[in-house]
Amino acid sequence: MAAIVTTGLVKVFGSTRAVDGIDLEVARGSVYGLLGPNGAGKTTTIRMLTTLLRPDGGTARVLGHDVVEEAALVRAKVSLTGQFASVDEDLTGRENLILLGRLLGFSWRDARRRATELLDAFELEDAAGRQVRTYSGGMRRRLDIAASLIATSELVFLDEPTTGLDPRSRNQVWDIVREIAAGGTTVLLTTQYLEEADRLAERLAVIDHGRVIAEGTSRELKAAVGVSTLHVRVHPPSQRETAVAVLAPVLGDGVTAGNDPGTLVATVANAGAAGDALRALDAAGVQVVEFTLGQPSLDEVFLALTGRSGATASGTEMGR
Amino acid sequence: MTDAEPTTRAGAAASGPEMRTVFAGTRPATPPSALSASLTLGWRALLKIKHVPFQLFDVTVTPLMFTLLFTFLFGGALAGSPREYIQYLLPGIMVQTVMFITVYTGVGLNTDVSKGLFDRFRSLPIWQPAPIVGALLGDVLRYSIAALVVLGVGVALGFRPAAGWAGVVLGMALVLVFAFSVSWIWIVASFLVETAESVMTASFIVIFPLTFVSNIFVDPATMPGWVRALVQVNPVTHLTNAMRAFMHGGGDAWPSVLWVLVASAVIVAVFSPLALWLYRRER
What we know:
The complex is a heterodimer.
Chain A: E1 4-13, E2 16-26, E3 31-35, H1 42-49, E4 57-62, E5 65-66, H2 71-75, E6 78-81, H3 93-103, H4 108-121, H5 137-147, E7 155-159, H6 167-182, E8 186-191, H7 194-200, E9 203-208, E10 211-217, H8 218-225, E11 228-235, H9 240-251, E12 255-257, E13 263-268, H10 271-283, E14 287-294, H11 298-309
Parallel strand pairs in A: 3-8, 3-9, 6-7, 7-8
Antiparallel strand pairs in A: 1-2, 1-4, 4-5, 9-10, 11-13, 11-14, 12-13
Helix pairs in contact in A: 3-4, 5-6, 9-10
Chain B: H1 16-23, H2 34-51, H3 55-79, H4 82-114, H5 117-122, H6 130-156, H7 165-192, H8 196-212, H9 225-233, H10 235-248, H11 254-280
Helix pairs in contact in B: 2-6, 3-4, 3-6, 4-6, 4-7, 4-8, 4-10, 6-7, 7-10, 7-11, 10-11
């Protein structure tokens, strides 16, 4: 049985269809990523799956229970770490964990023992007696995730677990997510970063405007998007059309004009293809003033995906 | 300095095997009872008072200021001397002080909601009103502190309960009952408005007329007829009457007590279902 199954899930806020018919199937014991820009409907989806919001249409079953009809059963089996650290800033780290332990039904003694174990595991023992308001962003995040692991959950929801964290804290959170999954817990996480989804999630759904616009393994998604993105600037800018014509046979149909005059963007399958592209431009006598190869950005993922599928999303709408 | 992470620890969080042991926790077979969840959240309210003692500034300085100000401002003019006036004023000023503090219930809940803390509480398998009830338990302690400060200042200024200290205890208990019910109004307000400041503003519009258009400061006999009519239906007037009868004797307290209890019951009956509905409502 799948951990999460949704069919045509809909949530409407006023005139906005925040979630507009989402179908998901998340296997048990996997890490599943919801990738999308701000306002795509990721958080709204998670809030419906954790019974905090009631769907306006469609159905969702979490661990076999309907999120509306059997909300209490769902709540007893899942845990949520929201987008903003939902811990009490006035209390110490230890007190926060004991409080939540008690609310999960642990005795005072067990709640205290559990708090100590988690504080040690998350390297917060030195800060355990300090008020959370004195914590750094990374410490707060770790405490927040620790709080959702006090009781074993079959399913852990992490809403943008690394947004706003420095690289070191982000790496720590990634390690934690891997360890949670290694213990057999299903993890559903949302993220705005392709790299994060790529590193953590076995399967991904790309969400935009409340719809799933692509679904598959990270490998499948990358095959669709291209492993990396090539940015080229030619001089004079009028040479761009020539450059596009030269590159099309080399790189396939993934070559498009950039935002600035004289620039073009292409997705390439490997670094070798980039070398071929540079040689082809040189042979055609096009003067290249800039030539960079990098990971595709979320914008470019969307451009690639929606260009293929003909959906409404586009790179310029990503910045909302 | 406090913002810095410990730098002595290099690398990521704890090692894999250790983490896995920690995650292989358990889940209690049964969720906590409604009482246990509410008491635990009441414990949270106590911890907040412990860590942010400044919260008690309001419940100590406001009563101190009100009692001193009104006693010395009006005492001479109204009763011949502050010492005589405090006999009349103390039961009423206790009511007013606690009324003003009830609003902090709403302010605190509004903060919890806006910080996302209630989302976590709502996703737990607990009796859903427990976070509200827990907050109220903590607030009753704050109301008690405020009432005791008023009493302390009053005694220092010469207040002596003619009917004995048992009457004082009964009177304070009645104030707490009424304050508990009024808190539900601010709980409703806290779920309706965006910011804690708005809860404060809304409260003053209610609490000022409620406590001043009463018999707290002066005998309503000299007021115009229509004001007197308002004073007579104000539950604060009946509460003050009951307190005076309890503390000083003279007059039957029980009709006023009944009035206050009925008013409290009506307020709770109207506002608590509304509050719980708003709390469960999605945000």
